[in-house]
Amino acid sequence: MIQEIVRQPGLFKLLTGTNLKGAMDPSLDNMKEEIRKKLQRLEALEQKGFDIKSIRDKILREHMDEEINLQLRKKERLKNEKKAKLAAEKRKA
Q1: How far apart (Å, rounded) are the C-alpha atoms in residues 35 and 80?
Q2: 82 found inside a domain
Q3: Residue 81: predicted pLDDT
Q4: Is residue 37 part of a domain?
Q5: At what angle do helices 33-47 and 53-92 cross, to 10 degrees?
Q6: Counting Cβ atoms within 10 Å, is residue 39 exposed (0-12), middle (13-18) or buried (19+)?
Q7: Which pLDDT score is estimated for 45?
Q8: Phi, psi of 34 (to 5 degrees)
């Protein structure tokens, strides 16, 4: 079993999670440029000794809420499109 984990880096990452931080953090991949810049500025302040954890958490929470809302709207739109398509097919029949 250990051999399989070592042979498949993707499986290893799923089991252990990512250890990337800063600009390479995978959670930043889908983030807007504006939010990334805010986090970079906060990181610079953190390196100077400021406690920015609460601010960073707030920004990340807002981003996650926005992402969740986008996903919900997309699901709702797809659901409505499917309903409209079924209704059109019923009218044809």
Answers
A1: 31
A2: yes
A3: 93
A4: yes
A5: 160
A6: buried
A7: 93
A8: -60, -45
47 within domain boundaries: yes
Per-residue pLDDT of the chain (93 residues; tens, 9 = 90+): 677 767 777 777 777 766 655 566 666 667 788 888 888 899 899 999 999 889 988 988 888 888 888 889 999 999 999 999 998 888 887
Asked, for residue 10, whether it belongs to a domain, the answer is: no
Confidence (pLDDT) at 20 = 57
Contact assessment for residue 63 and residue 39, using Cβ atoms and an 8 Å cutoff: no
Residue type, 15: L
| Domain range for 31 | 21-92
The domain total for the chain is 1
Residue type present at position 3:
Q
Rounded CA gap, 77 and 68, in Å?
14
**CA 25 vs CA 30, 42, 49: distances in Å:** 11, 15, 21
